[in-house]
Amino acid sequence: MTHTRRIILHWAEQGHIAGSDLPRALALAEVLPSREMWRRFLDRLLLWMGTVLVAAGVIFFLAYNWKDIGHFAKFSMVEVLVVVALLFVWRLGLDRSGGKAALFGASLFLGALLALIGQTYQTGADTFELFGVWAAMILPWVLLGRLAALWLLWLTLVNLTIILYFQAFPSVFGLLFSTERVLWVLFAFNTAALAAWEAAAACGIAWVSRRWVPRFVATASGGCVTALAMIQIVEWGDAGIWTIPWAIPAWLAWLGATWAVYRHATKDLFMLTAGVFSAIIVVATFFGHLADGDPGGFLLVGLIVIAMSAVGGMWLNNVAEEDGR
After folding, report:
1. Residue 2: its pLDDT value, please?
2. Cβ neighbours of residue 236 under 8 Å, at least 6 residues apart?
């Protein structure tokens, strides 16, 4: 439907379809949302918004009334919600949107329960352990749920666990874990997660066909490797460069893989746009570092950014037109 709509709009831009006839052309092609489609969209939107807001409401209710509610009442409230959510999952099944939303809500309530345990008993555990245990406990639900949002929640929890772990243990046996090493771990994890997701999508698994999840993961992966490349450029010539000698090659490999996969194998304009944006950032960082505070150099950097943005925009527009034909 999206491809057909893009073709019709492209014809309208070329003048093959008059502007007054465009709504009729879209209606004849059956690419405009029907009443049933709008009803289904609003139904799912309200379902998921309600699930997230109920979970957030419980967390904020407990936080606001922390001193006024006893331990028994706090634990009872959250545990009952977890059980009720799982009962809805059992009653509705994981093939229906209601069952999937209930499973997602149970995962959020479980996190609230773990936070409640840690805050009540003050076990001395580090924050990363909360998110790590949370991710480990919901992993069976993630595997059974076949729900993109739940997978994204799990990936987020693992990312937070990694970040907080390196904050809690900045060094082991005298080996300092710098920001670069944290970025390397995050880059490796998110790249592996992205590759696994795209491989599953290539195998024809229906529930992983949603493109918004790999775009989130690719943003995290690309952001980490772009930051690594920027750090290596800024620290060029200093001793710190030897801590990340492979940052630029890794960034170039990521950029090449992005172009190869999302230009030819799985066409995705968002991913290509992210690659262009990353290239602009790294190149601007390189020339900005060479400028070394010189006003003329910063003017050159501005001109380079404008030129790369224009060229990248034209290339992305050509790609979009080719896909629309």
Report:
1. 55
2. 289
Predicted TM-score (pTM) of this structure? 0.82
Region of 17 on the Ramachandran plot (φ > 0 left; ψ -120 to 50 alpha; else beta): beta
Residue of 140, 132, 136, 135 whose CA lies nearest to 153 = 135
Model confidence at 237: pLDDT above 60: no
Give the integer Cα–Cα distance in Å for 210 and 157: 20
Give the H or E element holding residue 45. Answer: helix 35-64
Length of the chain: 325
pLDDT over 90 percentage in the chain: 36
Beta-bridge partner residues of 171: 176
Residue whose token pair is 């290239």: 279
CA neighbours within 13 Å on the CB side: how many for 237? 3
Backbone angles phi, psi at 169, to 5 degrees: -125, 80
Beta-bridged to residue 175, according to DSSP, are 172
Nearest C-alpha neighbor of 106 from the set 120, 121, 119, 91: 91
DSSP 4-26: HHHHHHHHHHTTSS-GGGHHHHH
